[in-house]
Amino acid sequence: MPSLAHLRRLARQQPRDAFKAWWSTEAPESYKTLNLEATTSCPPELELPRATLHSLLAARSRHGDFADYHERFNHVDARLDCSCGRRKAPEHPFYCRKVPPRLRMRLAPSPAEAIHHAVGKGFEAFVEMTSESSFFQRICPRH
Asked: Which superkingdom, per the lineage (predicted)?
C-alpha cells in the first residue's frame, strides 16, 4: 500500500505530466521551433518589464507591430518600415543596421537557429540587445 506522501507526490505530478503531454501535441508550430518547455510554474520571462515582455511575446508569436500583421488586418495608419528603411518583421531586430555593432547578436551556426534560441530559451540575449539599443523605443518605435 502506497504511503500518503507518495500519493500526494503523484497527485502533484499528474497534472504537470498531463500539461506537458498536451503542450507537446497542441503547441503552435511557431513555438515548437523555439524549443520552449511547458511549465505549470511561473516562467522567468514573466519577471521582465511589461513592455519588454510584450516585445518578446510578439517576436515569439509573430503577432505584433510587424508589416505583414498590419497589412493582413488593413491597418492603414500603421508604420510598416523601421527607421533604417526595412520592413518591420519579427526577426528584424537581428538584422537592423541601426543596432550598434557591439550589441548585435552573432547569428551562428545558422541565422534561423540563433534567432529561435534568442527569442526562446536564450531570451536574455534578445532582451539585452533590444533594451541596450532602445530598439523598440528609438530605432523601430511601434505604430
From this structure: Eukaryota
Q: Where are the domains of the chain?
A: 1-40, 42-139
> ∠ CA(31), CA(119), CA(49), 5° rounding?
115
Query: How many CA within 13 A on the CB side of residue 28?
Result: 6
Torsion (CA) 25, 26, 31, 34 in degrees, nearest 10: -20
Separation between Cα atoms, residue 130 and residue 104, nearest integer Å: 9
Q: pLDDT of 43-97, one tens digit each?
A: 999 999 999 999 999 999 888 899 999 999 999 999 999 999 999 999 999 999 9
What global pTM score does this model have?
0.84
One-letter amino acid of 138: R
Residue found under cell 505584433: 64
Amino acid at 24: S
What does the alpha-carbon distance between residue 131 and residue 78 come to, in Å, rounded to a whole number?
A: 23
- H or E segment to which residue 71 belongs: helix 67-72
Question: Using the 8-state DSSP alphabet, how is residue 81 labeled?
Answer: B
Side chain identity at residue 40, one-letter code: T
Nine-digit cell at 80?
A: 510598416
